[in-house]
Amino acid sequence: MSAEHWRFIDSGARSGLENMALDQAIFEAHAHGQSPPVLRVYTWNPPAVSLGRFQRLQSSVDPEACRRLGIDVVRRPTGGRAILHTEEEVTFAVVVSQERLSTRGVMDSYRSVAGGIIAALRILGVDARLVERSAPPSRRQGQQDPACFSVKARCDLLVGSTKLVGSAQVQRDGFLLQQNALPLRIWLEGWRNVFRGASESPAAAGLWDVADTQLSYAAVAAALRRGFEERFGVVLSDSEISAHEAGRSRQLADQVPALLHSATSTHSRHERRPGRASAA
């Protein structure tokens, strides 16, 4: 019996607007039966803050600090809190159906995807665990701190007591897109200047700190590929962004909420189609 094949796309460094548009385009392609499940790995240039779908710009980040530091601000299709992304991060999007995961609901699918992430981190010599909590953070905590890596979520991947991965998800018609941020190093200067009301330092660490070695982007991408293959019993085949996905992402790039641009950015904002967005 032949193995099931998923797509593995390593699209390297792109702008925040391009990354959000591509994730959405690939999500749509899979939901429309035009693609098998996908693991896409990427990073960010220039740096960008991605806001959760329902976050407000002015209460979450300092626009002037973002402009000064050359940081774009975009909105994710997924929920959750803000994340500051740089090239010293490995971001990865998982696009798959609930049926393929044999899951029901958001938390169940988080647990399933977490299995692939934990397997990948184990390959890198990092022992992570999924910690679940009975309730999300308090309303007061959520109002005060807009940053994902400052707060405890309903599900967190921890190394010891330290948060390592930020994840958020959107589901539509039985299909899901889960976006995951794995910082290699947390940019503390950006952190302290960009977020409004955030704690002085994140309650998280970069992979270089917990692994005690400077793992490369390529090494982490390869481990993610192997970890997801092991967890789901599939073959992740090298793939490129299809012509249809590229065209659709260009359409979306004129509509994705690009809330703030650095000097090199030229795109505009949009209102995204409704969907069920959440964070762990």
The CATH class name reads Alpha Beta
> Taking all residues together, what is the mean pLDDT?
88
Please tell me what the overall shape is. Answer: globular
Task: Please state the structural category.
Answer: alpha+beta
Structure description:
The protein has 280 residues and is of the alpha+beta class. It has a single domain (4-279), classed as BirA Bifunctional Protein, domain 2, CATH 3.30.930. It has helices at residues 16-31, 57-60, 63-69, 98-101, 106-123, 139-144, 188-194, 207-211, 217-232, 243-253; strands spanning 4-14, 38-44, 48-51, 72-75, 83-85, 89-97, 129-132, 155-159, 162-172, 175-183, 234-238, 258-260, 276-279. The strands form two sheets. Strands 1, 2, 6, 7, 8, 9, 10, 11 and 13 form a nine-stranded mixed beta sheet that branches. α1 (16-31) packs across α10 (243-253). The radius of gyration is 17 Å and the shape is globular. It starts with a strand and ends with a strand. Mean pLDDT is 88; it is low at 138-142 and 263-276.
